């Protein structure tokens, strides 16, 4: 499971499922829909198997000539 490090308190804490989904750019509404039918373990797996939209656009942009910087226009 993903973890965050709090350097000031010198503690490590686990990321909760909705934080993992937010990190992957999913809306809270999408998370709550998935939460109704999935276990926390399954929610972690789903977030881990996803790809951020900006990353996907950047990868595709690198494959298309003249579109290398298309990801910069994503809002």
3D architecture notes:
- This protein is mainly alpha-helical and 75 residues long.
- 47% of the residues lie in helices and 11% in strands.
- The chain contains 4 helices and 2 strands.
- It has helices at 17-23, 28-35, 40-48, 53-63, and strands spanning 3-6, 11-14.
- A two-stranded antiparallel ribbon has the order 1-2.
- Helix 1 (17-23) packs parallel to helix 3 (40-48).
- The longest helix is centred in the C-terminal third of the chain and has 11 residues, at 53-63.
- The mean pLDDT is 84.
Number of DSSP-assigned strands: 2
Q: Largest beta sheet, briefly?
A: 2 strands, antiparallel
Q: H/E element string?
A: EEHHHH
Average pLDDT works out at 84
Structural class determined from secondary elements:
mainly alpha
**Low-confidence runs of at least 5 consecutive residues:** none
End-to-end Cα distance: 29 Å
Order of the strands making up the biggest sheet: 1-2
Give the overall silhouette: extended
């Amino acid at each position: 499971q993903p973890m965050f490090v709090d350097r000031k308190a010198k503690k490590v804490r686990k990321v909760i499922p909705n934080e993992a989904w937010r990190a992957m750019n999913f809306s809270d509404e999408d998370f709550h829909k998935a939460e109704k039918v999935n276990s926390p373990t399954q929610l972690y797996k789903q977030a881990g198997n996803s790809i951020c939209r900006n990353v996907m656009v950047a990868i595709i942009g690198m494959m298309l000539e003249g579109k290398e910087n298309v990801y910069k226009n994503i809002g």
